[in-house]
Amino acid sequence: MNVSERRVCRVLGQHRSTQRRLPQGRADEDRLVADMIELTRQYGRYGYRRIAALLRDAGWQVNDKRVERLWRREGLKVPMKQPKKGRLWLNGGSCVRLRPEYRNHVWSYDFVHHRTDDGRAFRTLNILDEYSRECLAIRVKRKLNSTEVIDALTDLFILRGVPAYIRSDNGPEFIAEAVRGWIKAVGAKTAYIEPGSPWENGYCESFNGRMRDELLNGEIFYSLREAQIIIESWRKHYNTKRPHSALGYRPPAPEAIVPMDQRPTMH
């Protein structure tokens, strides 16, 4: 075509400089991409928003939009979204009656079942503070009964005080007369969900899903002791590092670091 560059650019509405200058990324883009990919390898079930939050926590001044652009450019796959859940309605037509309003207002707890590499089953007792989303404890044993529930809650009551309500399902370990009587004796109230309605314990169900998706489905446990150590390590990461979408992509209980010059001196 015997048409000048000037005329072509005028017809297409493009500036002539676009024909000469190649777009270049920022000077720090290679290091940013490397850090992003490393976090993606480490936390393979995280999407770009959580990765962006972790990058900011590591010192990068970067927004979600830039991370998403680099994420897609590198061909990283966003984990499949969880199916949406409908709003909870009770049998009487009323919506959820008990919502957490402050720390230690409502705790919830539930079991998760898994197996070690030899095929033997073990269970975890997961206890959460529904308001802060913090996982207060995960007890891992081959068998867990109502006595174990009482022991786990006793330890937490000593450390954190007694919550106003404790929410659970209607499993035999939870509705055992000993558990119910003990909870009442320490001054808390029970909030059992409707039978056959696990979505009413939504905070614990969501946590259990994250735990299975991000940890249990990707680990081989060769012994119960190994499972206890790895699960406890994941619980600490969940509380102190893992960005939580419901908390503005902040962890439920971030670690507080006290500078050396502000620490009390021993006399």
Descriptive account of the structure:
The protein has 267 residues and is of the alpha/beta class. Helix content is 37%, strand content 13%. It is built from nine helices and five strands, in the order H-H-H-H-E-E-E-H-E-H-H-E-H-H. The protein has helices at residues 5-12, 29-42, 48-57, 64-73, 146-160, 172-175, 177-185, 202-214, 224-240, and strands spanning 106-115, 121-129, 135-141, 165-168, 189-192. Strands 3-2-1-4-5 form a five-stranded mixed beta sheet, with helices on both faces. Helix 2 crosses helix 3 and helix 5 runs parallel beside helix 7.
Strand and helix layout:
Layout: H1 5-12, H2 29-42, H3 48-57, H4 64-73, E1 106-115, E2 121-129, E3 135-141, H5 146-160, E4 165-168, H6 172-175, H7 177-185, E5 189-192, H8 202-214, H9 224-240
Parallel strand pairs: 1-4, 4-5
Antiparallel strand pairs: 1-2, 2-3
